[in-house]
Amino acid sequence: MPPRRRPAPAPQRNEAARLADQLQAAGLTKRDIARILNRDPSLVSQFYTRGKGAAFVPALTHALDAVQSGISDLAALAALAAPHVTRRTTASGTRARVRSKAVLVTPSGSGTGRVSAQAIASGSARLRPLIAEAAQRGLRLAFTVRLHKAGYVHASGSRIDSPGIRRDTIQRPDQSEERSYGSSTTGGFSAEDFARRVDATAGDVTAAVHQWLVETGRIHSHAQITHLEIRTWRPR
Predict the structure, then answer these.
(1) In a structure prediction context, what are the per-residue pLDDT tens digits for the chain, which is 236 residues long?
(2) 59 burial class (0-12, 13-18, 19+ CB within 10 angstroms)?
(3) How far apart are CA 209 and CA 67, in angstroms?
(4) Phi and psi at residue 202, in whole multiples of 5°?
(5) What's the rounded Cα separation, in Å, for the pair 104 and 111?
(6) How far, in Å, CA of 34 to CA of 31, rounded?
(7) How far is CA 161 from the centre of its chain?
(8) Which of 67, 156, 180, 229 gives 114 a disulfide partner, CB atoms 3.0 to 4.6 angstroms apart?
(9) Which helix (H) or strand (E) holds 228?
(10) How far apart are CA 187 and CA 197, in angstroms?
(11) What does pTM read for this prediction?
């Protein structure tokens, strides 16, 4: 009988993962930690799976100190951590090269970003830079949401909702509907206003859009967005 293979030892957790563990023990989630670092939650998971996070150790340390001193507000923790987020370095000590930001908005002002269920659950973080750039450039925006049709307050095509644009409503076999809000014809919405809303929700684009839809009486508060698309353009 061939000898049994011994299971490989569990990888040793790095400092970023250990600090993240302590923050979670204090009541935060990985999503909260990502918001404090102004990064996608997937990065926090990579502290454990890929050994990443060395550049965030100072920020995590300051955040942990603040939490242990009684500070629990995420916006306050993010403000304390922000000055301590450093770029990683190479073995020679020079700053590591990173991929430059992809072009989000064209020179004409048009830009589109779409996320689905997995990204929705983490706050649609990849849409935040698109909204921020559109706000900086004074653009207009529109968005399309998809959720179960029972989550909408008004029937599709209602003048109070769309308003009255039935062609912008797409019904799906799973009982969900896509509805579009804003267009170049109607003038859309101020990207600057939506950027402020996103900032007020600690960068959670999903929460900001959901809040607007509830405030304007378009969806029920319990409704869950499953897909979200943002479109931008330059006002005429």
Answers:
(1) 566 666 555 557 899 999 999 999 999 999 889 888 888 788 898 899 888 888 899 999 989 998 888 888 888 888 888 888 765 555 555 555 544 444 467 777 888 888 877 778 777 888 888 898 899 999 999 999 999 999 999 887 777 776 544 445 677 778 888 888 888 788 889 999 999 999 999 889 999 999 999 999 999 999 999 999 999 999 87
(2) buried
(3) 29
(4) 60, 35
(5) 6
(6) 5
(7) 25
(8) 229
(9) strand 227-233
(10) 19
(11) 0.56
The residue to which tokens 């970023």 are assigned: 16
Instruction: Produce one character per residue of 78-113: b if its CB has 16 or more CB atoms within 10 Å, e if not.
Output: bebbeebbeeeeeeeeeeeeeeeeeebbeeebebeb
For 179-186, the CB contacts below 8 A with 24+ separation are: 179/144, 179/145, 179/146, 179/152, 180/142, 180/143, 180/144, 181/142, 181/143, 181/144, 181/145, 181/213, 181/218, 182/140, 182/141, 182/142, 182/143, 183/142, 184/140, 184/142, 184/233
Contact 140, 188 (CB under 8 A): yes
CA distances in angstroms from 133 to 106, 110, 204, listed in the order given: 11, 11, 16
3-state secondary structure of 187: coil
